[in-house]
Every structure is written in C-alpha cells, then in structure tokens.
Amino acid sequence: MNIKEYYSLVAKVYFNQVIIISIYTTICLFILFSLGITINIVLLCGLICIILIYFFFKYHYYVYRHSKASFLLNSQEKFIHDNKRFLVMYVPARNIQIRLFKSNGLCEWEISEKRIPKLKTFFQTTSIYQIKKRDGSILATFKLDSSNKIAAGLSYNKERLILTHNNREKNKHSFSVNKIEYSIVKKSSAIEFNKENKVIARIERGIMPINWQKQFSPNTPIIEFIESIEEIDFYILVCLLIYFFRNYYY
Fold first, then answer.
1. What pTM does this model have?
2. 177: helix, coil or strand?
3. 64-73, 161-170, 171-180 — which one is most confidently predicted on average?
4. Which of 80, 180, 192, 219 is 20 to 30 A from residue 17's alpha carbon, by CA?
C-alpha cells in the first residue's frame, strides 16, 4: 500500500459512513412520525446535520489528499529514505488498524486485528493481531488478553514469548519478557517506549519536516527508533504499540 491508496481507502470509509447515517436517520424519522412520537425534531435534525457535515468534510479532505499524492508519488521525492522514522496512520474502523509509512509515501508495515467469525468472538477472551510487511507476508502474531493481566503472547519464527503486565502507574506501564523490563511512559509531548529504562523508540506529534507535509498532515504521529534494535525488541515494541492503542488514543 502507498499513501495514495491509503487516502482512497479512508475516503471510502467516511463516504460509507455518510450513506449509512443518512439511511439510518431517514428510517428512524419515518418510524417516529408513524408512531406519532413528538420530540424536538429541529434539534435532532440539527445534531444529525452536524455529524453528517463532519464526515462529509473528512471525506473531501482525504479525496483532496489522494489527488495531491497522485502527483507526489510520481515525483523525484519518492526516492527520499528515512529508516528510523515512520508515520503512524490509522484506518477509522471498529478494530485497530495501523499503517506505518515511510516519508516517501510507501507503507512499510501493517498492524491489524485478525478477523474471527462472530460466533467464535462471543466465547473468546483474547484478540489476535498481526504485523505484515508491504508484500502482505505475516511477520508475527500477537494475542492480547482482554483482562490485560497478561499483556500479550508473541509468536514469530516459530518462537513464543509472553509479555507480562507488571505494574500500572499514572503515566507508566511496566512489562517484562524473560526478566527483561519494558515500559510505556506517557509524557506531555511524547510517548516513550523503554527497555531497561533506556528509550528505544518515541512517538511525537507536531514535529514534522516541511517536505513531509506535502503528503502527510503536520499533526500525524511519528514513531522514531532511537537506535538500531534487535528483531525481538522490534516485535515487543509492536506489542506495546498495540497494547497502548487498545487502551488509549494518541
């Protein structure tokens, strides 16, 4: 996936929401009038119009971004590389769907919840997530417990690890894997991911190079790897990302 395809996907999501809300509202108003229920119709319609305007604005915003990306992806700027910083892009959906984009507009990794039949989800207490490469190949699978007592089970290269949730403070969550401590620290302007109290990655908003703003919103979160990390640390970091976005929104 590239940034043009991402904007097209999100624009369709918002357009579908406009259609669904319009149909649902029409049916509800018809039922209310048929039953003779008297409510403040003007106020209700006003609130619905505000919601529709919001989603319609978001739809046009991403259509505009899509048209702008069409030009930029064909320019020389697509060859700019930055292997330490990635833009964290969300797909508006009920389940977590995260795309990590390079500054050149190409999606490097996709993090999403695995689809499970509804009958199974009724009895299941865990959620299954996967991280995929650009070509769609699965790198690792994560099982997160709904109670958050055990943060996650991680499977990759036929290996299995348990990420245990040790402690939760106001702005800090502590975890352990094989007696090695990892943590998520919320600060006023950033989210830090630590290994043995040493920062290995950081997410920030509002700090973006000007040339990146041609394709991305200036307020897009950017995750930066402070230094080269081992493969296992990368997957544990993805685990922490999923845990964080399940419980918070940044």
1. 0.77
2. strand
3. 171-180
4. 219
